[in-house]
Amino acid sequence: MSAASCLLTEDQFLCSICLHVFTDPVTIPCGHNFCKTCITEHWNINVPCQCPDCKQVFNTQPELWVNTFISEMAAQFRQSAQQKASSSRSEQHVAKPGEVPCDVCTGTKLKALKSCLVCLASYCETHLEPHLTASRLKRHQLIDPVENPEGRMCTKHDKLLELFCKTDQTCVCLLCTVLDHKTHDVASLKGEIEGKKAELGKIETETQQLIQERRLKIQEIKRSVELSKEDADREIAGGVQVFTALKESVERSQAELIDTIREKQRKTEKQAEGFIEELEQEISELKKRISELEQLSRSEDHLHLLQSLPSLNAAPPTKDWTEVSVRPPSYEGTVRKAVARVEETLSKQMKNLFEAELKRVQQYAVDVTLDPDTANPYLILSDDGKRVHDSDVKKNLPDNPDRFSYCTSVLAKQSFSSGRFYFEVQVKGKTDWDLGVVRESANRKGKITANPQDGYWTICLRNEIEYEALAGPAVRLSLKSQPETVGVFVDYEEGLVSFYDADAAALIYSFTGCCFTEKLYPYFGPSLNYGGKNSAPLIISPVSHSE
């Protein structure tokens, strides 16, 4: 019996109805064999009785008897197959989480090697063998294992999804093209997939570009941190030099200075670390997407690729890093505040500090020109937009919304909404003037109350000797000498507006803790002519860097 079974093929032990090894095989009058249950159910459904293989019709349902010879041969084959399966099972891999298990295995599920789109099942190496040897099963379409082979079938017509409707952007079966998608543009999955793979390549290229941009941004942020640290180190060195010149009375001030600078630097580094962490997280997500795109591009499973495209086409949420940067904190005035308590002892050191401070802020010098559309009608502006004075004669000008209607004032054409900027104005020979910056929405009509609450950060000279910071209320300023050139420095993010005597390298006044949310415009007020007493112009001067 064993020798005989070896001469028979595995195909001869399979029922053509259930495609499994015979169970209680019976032979019908035409000579073909089937499982007793399979042929009985087949005849109960199909009338008249007909052989599923040769199609011979029987007038009456034949009486069925188990074919003992075939039954014994099938049993022996089943036993042999089980032994073979048991032997190969130890060599095959058990399905791990995320891997497709074999649908036929009982107990421990082995990893499936293929899925059948006809049987709608997945098979391990052992249970796949009939599909590789049995002539009836060889015609079945096998694909790489998938979790849900039923998803390859049209839910409406129970046919294989093998076409793509370009009109509705969905996969369809042959019957769909005749019925629901009759007039639509339909293509084969293979034909459609070429274009989709090109789209995947484009997405991959764009994603690579996003990664590169973020890497460059990381380098930019790291460089900003390095520059910030260098600034901090220089500031600390200067501060230490000042306080070292003092004795025990200034040791506490020295420590406070260092702590203040270090705290600002720590905040800068913490901000940079947050940006870098966020960028690296985006890179990680983008790399993950690259991996998914590469895996999908290599897939021969056209349907899976098309069904996965909608979720992969949408780029992962990423931040626009174009305007993001780590700005080194401003240290202007830090040392000055620390040593102010011992001002009498530090007069010489303070002089040195202000010179260095002015030199630093002068690095942010900008070129500004006067805007005639904002000038009060009594003002005369030079052709180059660098000089302005009161004429005592009102010109006939349109009263546009930007023009000062009452105060003898004018703004610069240039505005600033970020960063730092500095400009200098010559006030020599004048008895009255106003200088500073204003926010874009500040009132320009009628009498103006110049203070920060109303969007004005300015200082002024009145009656030739009275200097004030218009801080609301005004702060009387005591200056050692009358400045001939006033420097105006603004750090937008720091909320700082400082005024300097550019010739004496001395600080006049600082507005600190400001909150800027709008564009800032340089502000110039030459004041009234006063019968020629105040006829000298305000002159925007080129910055001459302190030596």
Structure description:
Helix 7 packs antiparallel against helix 8, helix 7 runs parallel beside helix 9 and helix 8 packs antiparallel against helix 9. This protein has 11 helices and 23 strands. Strand 8 and strand 9 form a beta hairpin. It folds into 3 domains: about 90 residues, Herpes Virus-1 (2-Layer Sandwich), CATH 3.30.40; about 140 residues, no CATH class; about 180 residues, SPRY domain (Jelly Rolls, Sandwich), CATH 2.60.120.
The CATH homologous superfamily name of the largest domain equals SPRY domain
Q: Which architecture of the largest domain per CATH?
A: Sandwich
Q: What is the global morphology?
A: elongated
Q: Helicity, in percent?
A: 25-40%
How is the main sheet built?
A: 7 strands, antiparallel
Runs with pLDDT <50, length 5+? 1-6
The CATH topology assignment of the largest domain is: Jelly Rolls
The strands making up the biggest β-sheet line up spatially as 11-12-23-14-19-20-21
Strand content: 15-25%
The CATH class of the largest domain: Mainly Beta
What's the assembly state of these chains? single chain
Number of domains: 3
Task: Reconstruct the topology from this structure.
Blueprint: H1 2-7, E1 25-27, E2 33-35, H2 36-45, E3 49-50, E4 57-58, H3 68-89, E5 114-116, E6 121-123, H4 125-133, H5 135-138, E7 142-143, E8 163-165, E9 170-172, H6 174-178, E10 186-188, H7 189-244, H8 251-298, H9 302-313, H10 334-339, H11 347-361, E11 379-381, E12 387-390, E13 410-411, E14 420-426, E15 433-439, E16 456-462, E17 466-469, E18 475-477, E19 485-491, E20 496-501, E21 506-511, E22 520-525, E23 538-541
Helix pairs in contact: 7-8, 7-9, 8-9
